[in-house]
């Protein structure tokens, strides 16, 4: 179907945002006006340079950092393992984001925007709807950025002011760049989720109006096609950001366990207290949980809106006679739509819904108990 008219405000916002994110290769280089990849060869070379430069600078900064060596010499094994897991997940997320944007995600990115514009063109033909990014999403993104700035301040302060280390070395070893990439990807997930969710809400309202109108069969065909488009859009979303979501979930678990372990070791095992250390660990826990919830809750709300559509279709069957054409068409469309119910997952490994919050909490609690017991046994062996 040929798409007419200008894109909605929320799509324009994502296009503008992606222009900024293209510089960091968080999003693929894509020419929205011509609907073709923008300089693919240059993009691939730039992606390789970004990954190589980051790995080299990080290794050099760690090798020549006396504070890092002192940290690994004087901390417990559980702290060393925790830091290694946190650093590995953040670095893996950085590399995957850059590599996927440079080599893999251009076609999926094109399909995502084509589907959204296709949906808008079908809805506009029968309903005057304006789409824009909600103020709640903007407020969440602003709060997220403020929390990140506060989180990044403490490692830079301790490294450059208290221990007189060069700024670039402290900046490279405290994983601020990698954490910034993760936060921006979470923001992108939240924005795209809001865009898809708003269209499901519009479709649910449109469906309720169609079922009360005179031309039920003809209008339902258009509604079902719109529902199919949104289901394909959700599948494309999984293809674009599934692996990043997987790494974000693993990083959330590792960071929460590590931060709780550091607080336990500082207060109980070493019997020392540092207000700055407590505040830093508190901010680590807060921003990790906040990012995790910004991924899980919006995606779960999309699935709730999609299930509302299916519930409306089933309830509407009572409005028509069992032998009427409208009833037969509604049964047919409902069965067809069941194949396009959105299901978000982390690269196919597990589903993303509210139950994941309790699953992560349970795993963190279990690993934390194991770490505490391990610390106590190690402390008894090395009094």
From TrEMBL:
Which family does the record claim for this protein? Belongs to the insect chemoreceptor superfamily. Gustatory receptor (GR) family.
Segments crossing the lipid bilayer:
12-30, 81-104, 136-156, 176-196, 237-256, 276-299, 356-374
According to its UniProt record, where is this protein located? Answer: Cell membrane
Kindly give the InterPro entries that the UniProt entry links to this protein.
7TM_chemorcpt
Q: Which organism is it from?
A: Zophobas morio
Keywords, comma-separated and alphabetical: Cell membrane, Membrane, Receptor, Transducer, Transmembrane, Transmembrane helix
Question: Which BP terms does GO give this entry?
Answer: chemosensory behavior; male courtship behavior; sensory perception of taste; signal transduction
Role: Gustatory receptor which mediates acceptance or avoidance behavior, depending on its substrates.
Which cellular component terms (GO) are annotated to the entry?
A: axon; dendrite; neuronal cell body; plasma membrane
State the name under which the record lists this protein: Gustatory receptor
List the membrane topology term(s).
Multi-pass membrane protein
């Amino acid at each position: 179907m040929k798409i007419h008219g200008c894109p909605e405000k929320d799509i324009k916002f994502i296009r503008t945002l992606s222009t900024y994110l293209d510089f960091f290769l968080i999003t693929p280089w894509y020419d929205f006006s011509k609907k073709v990849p923008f300089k693919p060869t240059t993009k691939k070379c730039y992606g390789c340079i970004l990954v190589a430069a980051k790995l080299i600078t990080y290794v050099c900064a760690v090798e020549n950092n006396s504070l890092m060596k002192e940290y690994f010499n004087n901390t417990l094994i559980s702290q060393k393992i925790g830091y290694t897991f946190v650093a590995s997940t953040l670095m893996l997320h950085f590399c995957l984001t850059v590599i996927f944007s440079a080599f893999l995600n251009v076609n999926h990115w094109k399909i995502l925007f084509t589907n959204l514009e296709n949906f808008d063109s079908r809805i506009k033909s029968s309903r005057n709807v304006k789409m824009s990014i909600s103020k709640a999403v903007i407020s969440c993104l602003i709060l997220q950025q403020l929390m990140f700035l506060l989180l990044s301040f403490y490692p830079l302060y301790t490294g450059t002011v208290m221990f007189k280390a060069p700024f670039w070395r402290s900046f490279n070893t405290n994983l601020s760049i990698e954490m910034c990439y993760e936060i921006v990807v979470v923001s992108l997930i939240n924005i795209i989720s809001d865009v898809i969710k708003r269209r499901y809400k519009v479709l649910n309202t449109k469906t309720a109006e169609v079922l009360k109108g005179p031309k039920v069969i003809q209008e339902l065909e258009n509604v079902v096609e719109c529902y199919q488009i949104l289901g394909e859009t959700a599948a494309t979303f999984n293809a674009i950001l599934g692996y990043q979501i997987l790494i974000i979930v693993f990083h959330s678990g590792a960071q929460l366990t590590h931060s709780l372990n550091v607080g336990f070791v500082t207060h109980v095992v070493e019997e020392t207290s540092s207000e700055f250390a407590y505040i830093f660990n508190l901010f680590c826990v807060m921003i990790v949980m906040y990012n995790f919830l910004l991924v899980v809750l919006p995606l779960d709300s999309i699935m709730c809106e999609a299930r509302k559509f299916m519930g409306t279709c089933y309830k509407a069957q009572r409005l028509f006679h069992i032998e009427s054409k409208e009833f037969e068409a509604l049964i047919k469309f409902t069965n067809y739509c069941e194949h396009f119910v959105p299901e978000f997952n982390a690269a196919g490994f597990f589903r993303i819904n509210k139950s994941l919050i309790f699953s992560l909490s349970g795993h963190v609690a279990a690993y934390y108990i194991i770490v505490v017991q391990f610390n106590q046994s190690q402390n008894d062996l090395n009094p």
